[in-house]
Amino acid sequence: MTPRQMDILIFIRDYRNQHGYSPTMQEIGDELGVTKVTVFEHVERMIWDKHLIRGEPYTSRTLTISPDIVWPEPLIVRCLSACKGLNPKGVPKAIRALRKLCDELDECMPPTPALARARRALAGAVEEQH
């Protein structure tokens, strides 16, 4: 999942929680600073390729998010996506730095669902490297 797709999913989730229905493609685009065409392309990929979103064809405000999604911490997703652009030798170093950050957070705050998601995202990144 790309950072932009994560941003879209988070916006849809939060909008549905606040309003009781889905945002339009235009509302998503306005919020994220992209065109509704860009949003549609990302949503289409998430519906057809990744099965992360469901919706009624040709009907507005029907997007729902798959209950199977594990919500990674957005900051970790952005960091891991940035790592993919690094020289392959730099990725393990970046993952170690993120793991150290999680360890430091463990020491200074109680366990949270966000930190647990961050750890799962890191575990997935480590598996991708092998």
Outline the structure in words:
It is a single chain. The protein is mostly helical and 130 residues long. It has two domains: 3-65, Orthogonal Bundle (Arc Repressor Mutant, subunit A), CATH 1.10.10; 74-129, no CATH class. It is built from six helices and two strands; from the N terminus they run H-H-H-E-E-H-H-H. It has helices at 3-19, 25-32, 36-48, 74-84, 91-108, 113-129; strands at residues 53-54, 64-65. The protein has a two-stranded antiparallel ribbon. It starts with a helix and ends with a helix. The model has no long low-confidence stretch (mean pLDDT 75).
Q: How many domains is the backbone divided into?
A: 2
Tell me which CATH architecture of the largest domain applies here: Orthogonal Bundle
Structure classification? mainly alpha
Helical content stands at 55-70%
Radius of gyration: 16 Å
Poorly predicted ranges? none
Which assembly state applies to the chains in this document?
single chain
Spell out the CATH superfamily of the largest domain: Winged helix-like DNA-binding domain superfamily/Winged helix DNA-binding domain
Q: Average pLDDT value? A: 75
Instruction: Give the helices and strands as they follow along the chain.
Output: HHHEEHHH
Quick one: overall form? globular
Query: For the largest beta sheet, what order do the strands appear in spatially?
Result: 1-2
What's the β-strand tally? 2
Strand content: under 5%
Roughly how many Å apart are the termini? 19 Å
What is the CATH C-level name of the largest domain? Mainly Alpha
How is the main sheet built?
2 strands, antiparallel
